[in-house]
Amino acid sequence: MFKRFTITFWATVFVGVVCLSLVGVDVWRSLTMRDELLQEMERLGANVTRAMSQQADDTIKAADIALADIVERIETEGQGAPALRRVERQMVAQVINLPQLIGLYVYDEDGRWIVNSRGVQNQAYNNADREYFIYHRTHSGRGPHVGIPVVSRSTGKWIIPVSRRLDKPDGSFGGVVLATLDVDYFRRFYQSFDVGARGAVALISNGGVLMLRQPFDNGRVGGSMVDSELFRHYSQLSGAARTTSAFLHSFHDGQMRLMCFRPLEHYPLFVTAALSRDEMLERWRRDTFTRSIGVLVLAALLGFFGKRLVDQIKLRGEVEAELRTARDALESANRTLERQAMSDGLTGLANRRQFDVTLGNEFSRAIRHEDTLAFIMIDVDYFKQYNDRYGHSAGDEVLRAVSKLIRALTPKRPGDLTARYGGEEIGILLPNTDLAGAQAVAERIRQAVEQLQLPHQGSGFGVVTLSAGVATITPQRGVHLQGMLVEAADQALYAAKSAGRNRVSLATEAVPAG
Ligand SMILES: Nc1nc2c(ncn2[C@@H]2O[C@H](COP(=O)(O)OP(=O)(O)OP(=O)(O)O)[C@@H](O)[C@H]2O)c(=O)[nH]1
């Protein structure tokens, strides 16, 4: 099946396959690298959110422990001046110990400062309108409350309020204990993460309030994210499924980003890390582009030189084919020359040379097989007169016509040979043929020539005729020579001529043995 295709075809297929493989492998490698990069990106996001949630949990927890302690003291020791001084000292110590704390404050049920870590008693500040204050006044729960970030009235800095409710002995609302966490404390930590120029991290409340974002966004911090794709996605999840990642549009600039989520363990907050896929893939794209150019150039060079190679192979094939054709033509010319060297130009019959060779071969064969070899010698009657009367070329024509007829009537067995013996004499060699068989052949030829009715005014018959002498021999080695057979046929021919021509004469007796 494969033989149907040329070497040029296979060479072209090979070059094509190599080029395609080169490009294919490169494409496959690029896609694999892209997948690995995206997986790496997810790992980075997961690590960042793990660290962020841990830090936020620890930071709030430390402040909350301080709050719980203050609540417990005030509720047990009361709000007398000595008790409040002890609480104040404790609060100052806590603020010094905890770098995330800006201040600790205790408010009465009307929102007025009772005591704080700053040692200032300014009744002008009333925080009864703050979200956390309203929350505790309206909620009897004793747990911590992480409020909405605000700009502190006392320090002018962005703070995250963490608070607990103070109860009076009768269980009614007695005020609020507040810890203000420094937003910058979180930001400094968030800045240590490399999430790329277009990446961002954020701390968000489970209620959908943006607590903090890095890069910092003054206009959005404290605002609602309830309508964002990010929040909608997160709020549909629950439990462990909330630690996840997804490609979502950023609420900040609408760009597609990989968003990684993780909830805080102890507080109703979660953190997100948003990584820009475009940014992450930028270097990959650059590398892929550069490498693809290289691969394409390589493939083009391979294709170019491959084509040249194929052309060379093709050329070689063509040259070989031409050489084959030339060799065949030469062989054919040689065969023609050989044939011409062995045949007679006028009649197309075998020439004397071939006759001698064949006679030699057949004579030997007849000796080996003890066969009888017959020979007929034919001569056109009064041919000299024909030439004289009709011209030499007309004589040639007669010779051609007679030869054609003789060839047609001579048996075609292997070894049978019709040859122009010389002049206007034609000899027929018939191996393995007895005298009667050869005579029949000669007689058939004689009659046929006569019936051709070729006019010959120089002959008493009026038409071209011929005479034939037939002889046979069963040669024996060392006894007979091949010339004996020809001589016997020649003598028979002479006899035919002497007897009046236009007849067949047989050699009076077979060539004698010994
Ligand atoms: N046109 C032509 N004539 C040839 C050719 N070869 C031999 N001859 C002529 O054939 C003639 C043979 O004549 P001869 O052998 O004397 O005898 P003939 O005239 O045939 O008479 P018989 O043989 O006795 O009947 C000669 O005149 C040759 O010149 C040839 O190739 N072409």
From TrEMBL:
<dbReference type="InterPro" id="IPR043128">
    <property type="entry name" value="Rev_trsase/Diguanyl_cyclase"/>
</dbReference>
<dbReference type="Pfam" id="PF00990">
    <property type="entry name" value="GGDEF"/>
</dbReference>
<feature type="domain" description="GGDEF">
    <location>
        <begin position="371"/>
        <end position="509"/>
    </location>
</feature>
<feature type="transmembrane region" description="Helical">
    <location>
        <begin position="6"/>
        <end position="28"/>
    </location>
</feature>
<dbReference type="GO" id="GO:1902201">
    <property type="term" value="P:negative regulation of bacterial-type flagellum-dependent cell motility"/>
</dbReference>
<keyword id="KW-0812">Transmembrane</keyword>
<dbReference type="Pfam" id="PF22588">
    <property type="entry name" value="dCache_1_like"/>
</dbReference>
<dbReference type="GO" id="GO:0005886">
    <property type="term" value="C:plasma membrane"/>
</dbReference>
<dbReference type="InterPro" id="IPR054327">
    <property type="entry name" value="His-kinase-like_sensor"/>
</dbReference>
<dbReference type="InterPro" id="IPR000160">
    <property type="entry name" value="GGDEF_dom"/>
</dbReference>
<keyword id="KW-1133">Transmembrane helix</keyword>
<keyword id="KW-0472">Membrane</keyword>
<dbReference type="InterPro" id="IPR029151">
    <property type="entry name" value="Sensor-like_sf"/>
</dbReference>
<dbReference type="GO" id="GO:0043709">
    <property type="term" value="P:cell adhesion involved in single-species biofilm formation"/>
</dbReference>
<protein>
    <recommendedName>
        <fullName>diguanylate cyclase</fullName>
        <ecNumber>2.7.7.65</ecNumber>
    </recommendedName>
</protein>
<dbReference type="GO" id="GO:0052621">
    <property type="term" value="F:diguanylate cyclase activity"/>
</dbReference>
<dbReference type="InterPro" id="IPR050469">
    <property type="entry name" value="Diguanylate_Cyclase"/>
</dbReference>
<dbReference type="InterPro" id="IPR029787">
    <property type="entry name" value="Nucleotide_cyclase"/>
</dbReference>
